Amino acid sequence: AASLVRKEAHYRPDGAPPFRARGSRRGDITAQGRGEGRGPGARAASLVRKEASAAAGGPPGRATSMAAAADDEGPPFSSSAAIFRRFSRDDVSQWTATKSSAQRAIKARILDLYPRLAPVIDDILPKKSVSIARCANFIEIVLNGDNEIVFFSHDGGPHLPSLRLLHRYPDMMSRLQVDEGAIRFVLNGANIMCQGFTSPGGDIPQEVEAGQPVGIFAEGKEHALAVGITAMDTAGIRSVNRGIGVISVHYMRDDLYLLPRLER
Questions:
Q1: Integer Rg of the chain from CA
Q2: Which of 13, 47, 203, 237 holds its CA 20 to 30 A away from the CA of 223?
């Protein structure tokens, strides 16, 4: 009995069951695109350990260069890295033609995030031609009348633009720039470390709060390489200069970028 108690204390330090399932229930998706269902106690304990490590000046996690992102360190919130690393038409489970009221609500949410799109929002999402594709892993994709992928959301999170839309409207959202050395890591779907923005060649041209959508641009490149969510505000990226600064959600070369349209 004492042995069992010791084992229980070892495997369940926060009282949560030692359950760890991949891709079987809602949870974080790592940079490798795998799902991990974890109980709330385990997730909270993980976040506390990360915050304690950062406060103590500990290492930010595995990284192959200062500008690269740590593939094995998850975000402290539900938005996750590289959700389209593996994606195809077969992942769509339901198609919905939206009513006028639903279209107005979608446009309102998009304009709250990207007010610069106000003059062109009806060009992007013409009236009576907006549909929603509901997909595996709690992904929803917004399509226009040509079945072009224009926005998507994950697990009830904010609407993020497809990279092809961001290339058409590069000033639609806040942007951050990584140095040249980070480019190959961004194109592999890695999260972006703070040093990628603060090292020579990186740039933080504007202040952005934590949890906000950003376009990831690169030194010497015209078009955005990725779309992500800030893991900390830009003031923290400068001052802490350690750990993950932006969660990469959608990047060039992922399956969403290679599938610009979803045909029924």
A1: 19
A2: 237
Question: 39-44 contacts: CB < 8 A, separation 24 or more?
Answer: 40/16, 41/14, 41/15, 41/16, 42/14, 42/16, 44/14
- Whole-number Cα distances in Å, 117 to 56, 112, 170, 204, 224: 42, 10, 11, 22, 17
pLDDT tens profile 3-13: 543 444 443 33
Q: Residue 214 in contact with residue 173, Cβ under 8 Å? A: yes
**Cα separation, 194 vs 138, whole angstroms:** 28
Say if strands 175-178 and 213-218 run parallel, antiparallel, or are unpaired.
Answer: parallel
CB 210 within 8 A of CB 232: yes
Residue 168 has pLDDT above 50, yes or no: yes
Supply the pTM of this predicted model: 0.70
Q: Are strands 149-154 and 139-143 parallel, antiparallel or unpaired?
A: antiparallel
> What tens digit of pLDDT does each residue of 80-104 get?
467 999 999 999 999 998 999 999 9
- Which amino acid makes up residue 241? N
| 138-147 burial code (b ≥16 CB/10 A, e <16) | bbbbbbbeee
